[in-house]
Amino acid sequence: MQKDERKVMMAKNKEPRPPSYAISVVGLSGTEKDKGNCGVGKSCLCNRFVRSKADEYYPEHTSVLSTIDFGGRVVNNDHFLYWGDVTQSSEDGIECKIHVIEQTEFIDDQTFLPHRSTNLQPYIKRAAASKLQSAEKLMYICTDQLGLEQDFEQKQMPEGKLSIDGFLLCIDVSQGCNRKFDDQLKFVNNLYIQLSKSKKSIIIAATKCDECVDHYLREVQAFASNKKNLVVVETSARFNVNVETCFTALVQMMDKTRGKPKIIPYLDAYKTQRQLVVTATDKFEKLVQTVRDYHATWKTVSNKLKNHPDYEEYINLEGTKKAKNTFSKHIEQLKQEHIKKRREEYINALPRTLNTLLSNLDEIEHLSWSEALKLMEKRPDFQLCFVVLEKTPWDETDHIDKVNDRRIPFDLLSTLEAEKVYQNHVQHLVSEKRRVEMKEKFKKTLEKIQFISPGQPWEEVMCFVMEDEAFKYITDADSKEVYSRHQREIVEKAKEEFQEMLFEHSELFYDLDLNATPSSDKMSEIHAVLSEEPRYKALQKLAPDRESLLLKHIGFVYHPTKETCLSGQNCMDIKVEQLLANSLLQLDHGRSNLYHDSANIDKVNLFILGKDGLAQELANEIRTQSTDDEYALDGKIYELDLRPVDAKSPYLISQLWTSAFKPHGCFCVFNSIESLNFIGECIGKIRAEASQIRRDKYMANLPFTLILANQRDSVSKNLPILRHQGQQLANKLQCPFVDVPAGTYPRKFNETQIKQSLRGVLEAVKHNFDVVSPVPTIKDLSEADLRIVMCAMCGDPFSVDLILSPFLDSHSCSAAQAGQNNSLMLDKIIGEKRRRIQITILSYHSSIGVRKDELVHGYILVYSAKRKASMGMLRAFLSEVQDTIPVQLVAVTDSQADFFENEAIKELMTEGEHIATEISAKFTALYSLSQYHRQTEVFTLFFSDVLEKKNMIENSYMSDSTRESTHASEDVFLQSPRGSSLAYNYYPDSEDDTEAPPPYSPIGDDVQLLPTPSDRSKYRLDLEGNEYPVHSTPLNCHDHERNHKVPPPIKPKPIVPKTNVKKLDPNLLKTIEAGIGKNPKKQLSRVPAAPPEDLDQSDNYAEPIDTIFKHKGFTDDIYAVPDDSQNRIIKVRNSFVTNNAQGDEENGFSDRLSKSHGERRPSKYKYKSKTLFSKAKSYYRRTHSDASDDEAFTTSKTKRKGRHRGSEEDPLLSPVETWKGGIDNPAITSDQELDEKKMKKKTHKVKEDKKKKKPKTFNPPTRRNWESNYFGMPLQDLVTSEKPIPLFVEKCVQFIEDTGLRTEGIYRVSGNKTDQDNIQKQFDQDHNINLESMEVTVNAVAGALKAFFADLPDPLIPYSLHQELVEASKILDKTERLHELKEIVKKFHPVNYDVFKYVITHLNRVSQQNKTNLMTADNLSICFWPTLMRPDFENREFLSTTKIHQSVIETFIQQCQFFFYNGDIVETPNSVTTCQPPPSNPVQMVEPMVPLQLPPPLQPQLIQPQLPADPLGIL
What we know:
Blueprint: H1 2-14, E1 20-27, H2 32-35, H3 42-50, E2 64-65, H4 67-71, E3 80-89, E4 95-103, E5 107-108, H5 123-127, E6 131-133, E7 161-163, E8 166-172, H6 181-196, E9 201-207, H7 214-225, E10 231-234, H8 243-254, H9 266-289, H10 298-305, H11 309-357, H12 361-364, H13 369-377, H14 382-385, E11 386-387, E12 408-409, H15 416-448, H16 458-462, H17 469-473, H18 476-504, H19 506-509, H20 520-530, H21 534-537, H22 543-558, H23 572-583, H24 594-597, E13 603-610, H25 614-624, E14 630-633, E15 636-646, H26 652-656, E16 665-670, H27 673-693, H28 697-700, E17 704-708, H29 718-733, E18 737-738, H30 751-770, E19 786-792, H31 800-808, E20 813-815, E21 823-830, E22 833-843, H32 844-853, E23 858-864, H33 868-879, E24 887-893, H34 897-901, H35 903-918, E25 922-927, H36 940-948, H37 950-964, H38 983-986, E26 1019-1021, E27 1027-1029, H39 1069-1078, H40 1097-1101, E28 1120-1122, E29 1129-1131, H41 1141-1146, H42 1149-1155, H43 1170-1184, H44 1232-1252, H45 1287-1299, H46 1313-1325, H47 1338-1351, H48 1362-1369, H49 1374-1385, H50 1390-1407, H51 1410-1413, ...
Parallel strand pairs: 1-4, 1-8, 2-5, 8-9, 9-10, 11-12, 13-15, 13-16, 16-17, 17-18, 19-22, 19-23, 23-24, 24-25
Antiparallel strand pairs: 3-4, 6-7, 14-15, 20-21, 21-22, 26-27, 28-29
Helix pairs in contact: 9-11, 11-15, 15-18, 18-22, 18-33, 20-43, 45-47, 46-47, 48-49, 48-54, 52-54
């Protein structure tokens, strides 16, 4: 090891050492007297050369030392300093080491004389010495080193001795310090002489050139030029200019091998050096700019930057001190920027603060800023807006760092800026006040402009206000804003007035079929009436909004609930419930039903219904996802009890509801159309069973959920159809539909489906718990002796307390049963006994269902005498109340003085009293300023009247209920869990049912008043006392006013034992007898109408029109009905078919009527009140008046054939405005001469129109919602010469003739629209489909067939031949007429001819089965002529020929053999073309009755006109 080390040392010793030079820096030295008070810069020059870094450069070096310092190792008692050595590299890469010696003269700080040293020679001689020696002499760094050598780097002079190789002669060219330059130059000259003697290289360093005196420098240069080879280097130690150059130049002079030194002038060198400094400074400042936090310290930042080259370069050039100064300046700038930003924030926030604290101009307008400050300090919100600091100013405190404290330092407000903000604030308030004043002035200007209508654009109004002072002052934006506000106000007011107008016209809306959607004709009728109102016209420019309000109102009429009430929180039902809840002590009868036990159930019983094992598969899947029958859902564990049952099970009902198992919900699973239809039937059976046996009301509300199974084994294209069908059924049943989730799943059922279904059941259970008894209802028949319903209108201007105070202030008032939030009980002595009277207080809209379906002994109808709408609603409601039920009318106003002071109040109170007089009702007035109304005696007489008629009312109610019992679907209270009517569950969709049923009961969720009795009589007595079964018919008297029900379906014709028993409406008895008495010759042939329930039942089943618009005693039958006994066609129209009219008269028919007067069918109050009746009649006259006829309400005595109401199946096939053709009612007469004039006028008008107009093609919109390459195509594209009949038509006709020729009402009864669509969709996909395999009804196929023709681009019978057919049908001679029609048919396009022949032949076959299907040629023509001829009902010219068109089709059907098969003419009744009734005989129908000139209250048929056709299928 030691040998190796020696070898390494020997190798190092052999390496060449760099040359070493010792340079002695000399110059003027000595006492202050000799050199002045500062040196010539020798020390600074040495310092800068040896230690060039700025941090190592010391500008001050003293030569005055103490004896101790002089004797220290650094000075070492010598008059020279060893500065250390510097290693330099030349341009050629050769290094050399330069030792620097400074020759000076140290002065004793005591004597101020040079210190004594070992060398006593004077400075000039000492400085020229070439040999220096000083043992252990240390390197000099700075003055502070003296005496503290141990604290600095200690480096000895090499070997304690040095040989000087060259001299650097320093000459100070600055101004000097009390020193004459000439003396210095003289000293330098002497020194130079001594130095020259040493034969060493010499160079002159002109020091302090940064403070250079030019002529000094020139003298130095002159001095040097006089010497041989003497070079002058201009230096500056302070700026490090040419310092290194002068030493390098001297080395080059000493080293003969080097070239001549290159001397750079001071200015050039200075520029170069300063450029380095500037560049480094820029880089360093950029580094510093990265610091953004003014809290940063130099220590932290320098530590981060110390290794950065830009940082190091700047430190070397300028030093740490400058770097720190630069950093400090940056930090201070950041801080000031932050303070400035905070100040700006405070100043910007100050206006808002002033707006908060000093917003009142009147208070501060004349206050100075200092006064305003004092005022602000007193404000309660002062501390929230300002902060008072202990130390100020705020920008010198730590508050500047509290950025989250948005409060303004209060001392900031003492600045001029804040005061200026205050002044601006005051000025702003002044201008804003003026602006507001001018805006209000402009608003008043707008209010004065009468022609501004709601919805009128600003541009139309602006030109009228251009010169207005206020308009000129405010800005455009302000003017638009004011106008917008004005528009909002007038629009809102107009809408409110429009809504009030709708309520005033309540009679116009409450005859709507509430289970459908409004027909276009009904909407036209409504618009016709309302368009006369200024409040209607006021919204002319906002027609969409007006239409929306109207539809919203109609929607409310259809679905009146307190949630949808247009009065919002002013709904009477809500206010009554709130008042009763606060006023009565509710009795808690408990809720024993399982749904009442708890809203948070832990065990869920599920009934799973499916076909072909699907139910079991779903149960297995649920169990797979469960653990021990416990299922986790939404963080809760439920115990599941599953009961899967196959839908085909004969024990389905018995398994569903047992004492041991009461399901919370039922999952219904399907995977095909067949299983879905089966499920639908099962649910219908379940609900029907629940309604009939009254097993439990909650069974009827059992939540159902439809679940679609995954179709992994089926064709995927069936999935959309199944999804659509499932959703349709779910909408109808008002239950959730759980679809197959998106994606691919291996199982039939997905976990998501199960969880979604279970959530639905739990929500339904909670719903049942929450709303089990909040609806207006009277539950227990045994609770009360009398049941009175008090009705009031929502939004009436009186308090609910006013109308309830007669009951609530009574000591005998108590709460009704729990859950009857709108009822109270009265114990009151009436007659000789104490009676319990249940008062149910409802809004009129909630009372509608009660009026029709509940046992009510009397009505208290309240209206506000200040509001026309209130009276309008009362009239609409009262019109449909049975006249057997006592009524008390109550007018509400402030005081009796109103009657005399306010004409409007007087008019309404008078009208109410007049109506009460007409119907023999009670009338009273309640005054809010009176106390009398607070006594129950107000209604004592009314209660007594009700008690007196109680038995008659109940018998009438039970009789009506019996007639309805065969139609379970008529019970509007059999609701689904969502509150829907079961009417949707039993009837197939109408083709025009284009939208899902309502999501709640049409009569509202809170309307039920009484349950239907569980056991109603199935038999009743006729007028002769015979007992016979009752069959409900579509024409039943009460059913037609049930605005919340779909018309009942057609049933097979029942067998009625006594078809000849005919009865008269008792209300018309006396007048009819009087009419017969005046016309004895006509008494057998002019028989008045009888109640339709007494008609031959076959009559009722031939009636296609929605009977909801017929009065119970007056029908408007438009179909011919074949009589069973005579096989003759009878026209039934507002009359009855009698086979024994003569016998009735002979047997004392009138006597029997009077004998059974106590058992008469009740009528409606509208037939007892001229006021109510005339109101409805006035609507009819306004909507059915002809432009050229002022007497449109009357018709010719010539009886016309029944007007077609339009196809029930297809809205596209329904006439639009057939009502314009006139009213067919034989009981309504008109003057014959006037009719003749009208006919002439119309004929003349038609002739003129023929000259002017050409037939207009009428193309109805397609009924399809999918693209088809078959349906809607031209007929020519669907046939060939080999197959002249479209394949779809062939299939439909073949299916109908094979399976449905005997189906009652074929082509008239609605088919399921969804099934019709599916038939066409399936045919689109596969023309070879088998209709029988689709399991669709005959009516659905019939509807699809009609839809095929409706979708054709052109009607089957070309428009071009319509007029010829009309003209031909007017030929009186039958034979000639038929031959002319035959010639016209031959003009058909061959394709049209073949198809027309095929269809007419089919219809002829259908008519031949009229004995069973009740579809005569007349009936079929009514259903089919709009389909085949595609009429344009917008053409008034066409309206006069609609009847002729229908008769043409009827003729084609009847004479099919003659027209197409060269057969003989068939003899038929002549009623088709002449519109005359059959001849009178004892069996058949007689001519129209003799016009009875009855007063309006005795003509109920006048208020039952035929309404316009209904394309949308609502009416």
